[in-house]
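ok posting inputs for the zinc ion job
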Amino acid sequence: MKDAAPQKIYLSDYQVPNYLVEDVHLTFRLAPESTRVLSRITFRPNPEASSKDFFLHGEDLKLISTKIDGAAVTPDLVVGGLACAVPDATFVWEAEVEISPATNTALEGLYMSNGMYCTQCEAEGFRKITYYPDRPDVMSVFTVRIESDLPVLLSNGNPVASGEGFAEWHDPWPKPAYLFALVGGELINHPDTFTTKSGKEVELNIYVRPGDEGKCAFGMEALKKSMIWDEEVYGREYDLDIFNIVAVDDFNMGAMENKGLNIFNSSCVLASAETSTDMNFERIEAIIAHEYFHNWTGNRITCRDWFQLCLKEGLTVYRDAQFTADMRSEPVKRIEDVIALRARQFREDNGPLAHPVRPDSFVEINNFYTATVYEKGAELIGMLKTLVGDAAYYKALDLYFDRHDGDAATIEDWLTVFEESTGRDLTQFKRWYEQAGTPRLAVEESYEDGTFTLTFSQSTPPTPGQDQKDPRVIPIAVGLLNPNGDEVVPTTVLEMTEATQSFRFEGLTARPTPSILRGFSAPVILERASSNAERAFLLAHDTDPFNKWEAGRALARAGLVKMILNGAAPDGAYLDAVLQVLRDDSLDPAFRALALGLPSQDDLAQTLVDQGHTPDPQAIYEALETLKMAMATHMQDVLPRIYAQYQVTEPYQPDAEQSGARSLANAALSLISRVDSGTAAQAQYDSADNMTQQLAALAALLTAGKGEQAVAAFYEQWKEDRLVIDKWFGLQISLADPANAAEVAAALTQHPDFTMKNPNRFRATLGALAMSPAGFHRADGAGYKLLADWLIQLDPLNPQTTARMCSAFETWKRYDCDRQALIAAQLDRILAQEALSRDTQEMVSRIRNA
Ligand SMILES: [Zn+2]
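and the output
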């Protein structure tokens, strides 16, 4: 049953559940098109509820029978579930339903992927498995029996019994239905064990399809490192006898933290030197950690309702970033995170999809698994830690775990813990959760008689539904450098609470150069007039690695804007400054590789909008190409030396040291290929023994216009490996000449290996086009039309992935009238589809009504 008019749900309408669940027994009789699900659930009236109405969620279920306390009953089937008259006392509900995993292409609830049964229940997938109060504040103990001839049958918790054609599992920890999981298939196990701090032995398994068993070792090591790290840093131990991970090819998200049975998109767990890049390895390590960390921040303490999603996601993203910083390089991780935050979250905050970190309404919760909830949510945790200090942060976390273990909690609960343990009033800080939009932080400075004054003003532009914003508390980390480049004031955190506020530094002997917002201490846009000379000075001398990198980026951006608007030549000062960084062997190679990077096309488009111009995507692309060619020429003498110096000769390891060296050598190769006709890239391609080297060489060959042979050879070599072929699809589109990127993408959708049923492949193809601005925004609208054609085809099969990819259009109001008209026509065409999903309807309407 589909809702006729999708209903908006409001945080302010929250009501406690009318009935609580004491225990749940589920039996699954697995069959591809006719799985039977038998449920036996003990309900008890909630003494705190004001209503006795009994309602269970349920969607796409065929109801076979229902009983209360053993007697047959006939419930009323209503939109989204069922209602029934029930006793005013504890009672046992039994139901039998039939579902069809094989035809479930939405990949929510129980579905099949390559012959394997698996589930995805967050946020509201459990209602597609059986009738249940499918809300996170209803927590219960689950016992599950799975009947099937398949050799591997898994669910949450600990195994309690198994035999010919069945397995039983019991999870002693009460959990909401969204953490339920089931897997059945012919899977191979990569086993290990872990002994917790208190001496408890835990069985660890990674289950994969036959053929993938050689790609589990790295993930297993990452899991064990995560378990140790959470014990050491947060004092959190694992709490079951067994921890299982399963890799699934068809999956909408990255991975899912179901209690004791994490289910992963295979792209986020399978790793080998031959098939995964260094970036893949780093991401896999981080995602395994993230899902594992959810065992405490998400599972033991869950969310009261879906408006509180950032409670588990912001905190867990913050924790996984801390973990990566500890395992690898803290500055490099911070720079990478800020690049991603600006690319995704600032973009979201600046457009029609802007929403608070804790939204106050939604139509479809799947549309709120966003960069704002996750990445900005994590920034808020980082700011809170900066404001209260490290010791107070961990003390507050201990109180949070003590007080709320077993709870379905709220942002208020979270902040109260900090208020009580530190004595600090967080009323103003809470605005970060409630107000959408990225604050602009303007700075003015003066120097007189040895006193340097910084005056900050904050303002946040209006966002949908929020015109007025109140000043927020902003931690601003500042350091001061004297004219010879020495640091005279080390990093100091200024706490801004007013709309406009001044801070004084006294006793200086000369006017200093300020380094503001060190480490990116708050998710704001710094608006400060600066000269290229000052940027070059900070790039050379700043002791804060983030701001050192930031200075180089600002210098590059300023030069590019002049090239785009006035047809200026590449800025010589930038070329000299970045050459200095490249040559400086005392700097971390990974940092130098990042310093060689340029602002993205999307970043430049937004910069132009902020300066009052209408961006021309093709002009932006051409300016970047011109600058890269100028860099290649300007550094011609140094690049081959760097390339040779940072070749790794030891056996491949995906660690920070080796991957840093490879990232610098490959950044050099990318520039060298612009002037040597691809000779060095071809040599690297021919000798590569790992995917990082092979893919970088392929990219450099494509950039040099010499990729044809390598593209064909790459396909022949890897056609049996889905994850590698995803890279092959994506690279050809993202590196295509924008003049024919849409045609390249269209041709690849006709390739026999293209399938829209696999979200990874769909994103690798249409997502790559959407993320190549010059190609996607081609003036004739071919990119828009191609994407809309495929979104319309995908929506009936997989609403979640369709809706998420609609965000490709979220920046449309930036562009000229012709492009806006072309995009509006495609958005209207999508909205005019009959039976458009609730997910896509909500997303496209929000974008269209901007
Ligand atoms: Zn998560």
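notes: The pocket of zinc ion is lined by residues 290, 294, 313, 316 (CB under 6 Å). The mean pLDDT is 97.
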